[in-house]
Design goal:
seven-stranded mixed β-sheet; globular; four-stranded antiparallel β-sheet; mainly beta
């Protein structure tokens, strides 16, 4: 199990950018695929982005493609999510997750991730 703590959420305006961070422990962080998911009120959890070990590849959900960027710093045990051109529809609780998905086809599946943070709220005003 990996302990994950997200930070960086808050209230932003439409069109603004936001950076989220997720600090992880223990030191086996670099062995995990890291993902970001989000959940808006009344909706299911939605895949946002994932990054493989060694930052070899990144994957994005269709709703954020072109506006989101995921990165990781294994030396700092931290994964980041940068979101640009935020829209009211981006408002949600954003969760960081760590896992070892069986294949690239399961990176977008929340069941592929075994450890989750507590989430950070992002609110977008119009």
């Amino acid at each position: 199990q990996v302990m994950l703590v997200e930070s960086g959420g808050g209230l932003v305006q439409t069109g603004d950018s936001l950076s989220l961070s997720c600090a992880a422990s223990p030191r086996t962080f670099d062995s995990y695929v890291m993902g970001w998911f989000r959940q808006a009120p009344g909706k299911g959890r939605e895949f946002v982005a994932a990054i493989t070990r060694n930052a070899g590849s990144t994957y994005y959900g269709d709703s954020v493609k072109g506006r989101a960027s995921i990165s990781r710093d294994d030396a700092e045990n931290t994964v980041y999510l940068r979101m640009n051109s935020l829209e009211p529809e981006d408002a949600a609780v954003y969760y960081c997750a760590a896992g070892r998905p069986a294949s690239v086809y399961t990176y977008k599946v929340e069941e592929s991730y075994q450890s989750w943070g507590q989430g950070t709220q992002v609110t977008v005003s119009s």
